[in-house]
Automatic annotation (TrEMBL):
Lineage: Eukaryota, Viridiplantae, Streptophyta, Embryophyta, Tracheophyta
A Pfam family reported for this protein in Swiss-Prot or TrEMBL: PP2C
Coiled-coil region: none
UniProt feature, compositional bias: Polar residues: 420-435
Family: Belongs to the PP2C family.
Source species of the chain: Morus notabilis
Molecular functions (GO terms): metal ion binding; protein serine/threonine phosphatase activity
Domain of life: Eukaryota
Protein name as annotated: protein-serine/threonine phosphatase
Transmembrane segments: none
Reaction catalyzed: O-phospho-L-seryl-[protein] + H2O = L-seryl-[protein] + phosphate; O-phospho-L-threonyl-[protein] + H2O = L-threonyl-[protein] + phosphate
Regions of compositional bias (Basic residues) in chain numbering: 26-36
Length: 482
């Protein structure tokens, strides 16, 4: 990368810091008398292996309220990860969902680390009910007047929200949004700092997206970083199924994102071979060519405008809202929002909805882009009313089924027509415009079942717009980590 890189080089900060990779968790463990904390099963869950926690699903399968499926593409190791966590935070009416799309040589490791750690951090910060002034105060103390782009963005997000919402509008927002908004901001910030400080994964040129959702009762709050997407399937006044995009694809072509990056000396431009794909580049080096404006990790760009501050939004679920689809860009690159909700609605059972969507996307890849490498795909379908079956009569009979059927789904699709979000109330962060689970478990073996030796890849092969990084290879199993 040469001399253009920041002072935060590949040397992990952990070697000079007393803090450990599990900074967020250990901090709460030792803070027994922290004001605002409450007794719950969180301490128990902190010691319990993640794959044994009831209600936490991260493998292909289904429950009464959700369907999950991921499939490796043709670029090497599957870098996508996903999770559904029922009874999240010891709350029986609460579900956490997320999909994570890793990129770079060790993107699959970053995606799994964030999948496993971020929900714990969010739950911890939610319990103590952190407010915005605490967040800003900590930023001030830790940076001593020298904020980087990440801290500045976090402070700006809070100031912009306060300035853009009048008192009457604040009162209309549900209390859960006010609480979870601060918890999302804090958890994402601590997660990224933990990735920077730990030494077990090289996150210098590797990272992940994250689109995450908390549903409590009829309220949902979404925290989004990167270009994975959440789409709602709902009914209009004529009872027709329509999609509503709940998140913004946070790419460098958005004017506000490009403005922030350029102010931090990062460069944003597209190559002649792919004029539709804006990428982020270092000030004096044509690398790494990241095709998103926000991500966890990717510390080679964190001093040059890339941030991990989530865009946060909320929605009150109505009786017409049926399900939410969270998916990585392997789905959205070949299917429109409308096609996605139609596929989920026409699945033979709720338990097979996610798999049907992934299989249709793979078929669409082969039909539309036969010379390209199919991207990894990960899907979470969250059904908003588990008591009635708005999607399929067969769903209630399969509420305890843990794995999808292998039925083939043959659908033809058309190329995506980009649609603009959304009917959500936005937070203001976007203006208008232990690494993996402990080894040896059955779940770990199943998680790696779709992984196979990968190959180096380039954004100039096939459909270049779907490749997140331009100049770096993907992880190849068996290679020695630098």
């Amino acid at each position: 990368m040469g001399s253009c890189l920041s002072a935060e080089s590949r040397s992990p900060h952990a070697s000079s810091s007393p803090l450990t990779p599990n900074l967020g968790v250990k901090k709460w463990k030792n803070s027994k008398k922290r004001p605002g904390s409450r007794n719950s099963s969180f301490d128990y869950r902190r010691e319990e292996p993640l794959h044994r926690i009831p209600g936490r699903m991260f493998l292909n399968g289904s429950s009464e309220v959700a369907s999950l499926f991921t499939q490796q593409g043709k670029k090497g190791t599957n870098q996508d990860a996903m999770i559904v966590w029922e009874n999240f935070g010891s709350r029986t009416d609460t579900v956490f969902c997320g999909v994570f799309d890793g990129h770079g040589p060790y993107g699959h490791m970053v995606a799994k680390r964030v999948r496993d750690s971020l929900p714990l951090k969010l739950s911890a910060h939610w319990e103590v009910n952190i407010n915005g002034s605490d967040v800003l105060k900590e930023i001030s103390l830790n940076t001593a007047g020298s904020m980087n782009s990440e801290d500045s963005a976090l402070a700006f997000a809070d100031e912009e929200l306060r300035a853009s919402i009048d008192i009457g509008e604040v009162e209309k927002r549900p209390e859960i949004f006010q609480t979870l908004r601060e918890s999302f901001l804090k958890a994402f910030k601590v997660m990224d700092r933990e990735l920077r400080m730990q030494g077990s994964i090289d996150c210098f040129c590797s990272g992940t997206t994250a689109v995450t959702l908390v549903k409590q009762g009829r309220d949902i709050v979404i925290g989004n970083v990167g270009d994975s997407r959440a789409v709602l399937g709902t009914r209009d006044k004529d009872n027709s199924l329509i999609p509503i995009q709940l998140t913004v694809d946070l790419k460098p072509n958005l004017p506000e994102e490009a403005e922030r990056i350029r102010k931090c000396r990062g460069r944003v431009f597209a190559l002649q071979d792919e004029p539709e794909v804006a990428r982020v580049w270092l000030p004096n080096n044509d690398s790494p060519g990241l095709a998103m404006a926000r991500a966890f990790g990717d510390f080679c760009l964190k001093d040059f405008g890339l941030i991990s501050v989530p865009d946060i939004s909320n929605r009150r679920i109505s009786e017409k809202d049926e399900f939410i689809v969270l998916a990585t860009d392997g789905i959205w690159d070949v299917l429109s929002n409308k096609e996605v909700v139609d596929i989920v609605a026409s699945a033979p059972a709720r338990s097979s909805a996610a798999r049907a969507l992934v299989e249709t996307a793979v078929q669409s890849w082969r039909q539309k882009y036969p010379t390209s490498k199919v991207d990894d795909c990960a899907v979470v379908c969250l059904f908003l009313d588990s008591d009635t079956d708005n999607i399929s009569i067969a769903a209630n009979t399969r509420s305890k089924e843990q794995h999808c059927s292998a039925d083939e789904v043959n659908c033809t699709t058309e190329k995506e027509d980009p649609s603009c979000p959304t009917s959500l109330d936005r937070s203001g962060t976007v203006r208008t415009g232990q690494e993996m689970n402990p080894k040896g478990s059955k779940e770990d073996a199943e998680e790696e079942i779709n992984s196979e030796p990968g190959k180096d890849w380039s954004a100039l092969e096939g459909v270049s717009r779907v490749n997140t990084l331009l100049t770096l290879p993907r992880f190849v199993p068996g290679e020695v980590k630098l």
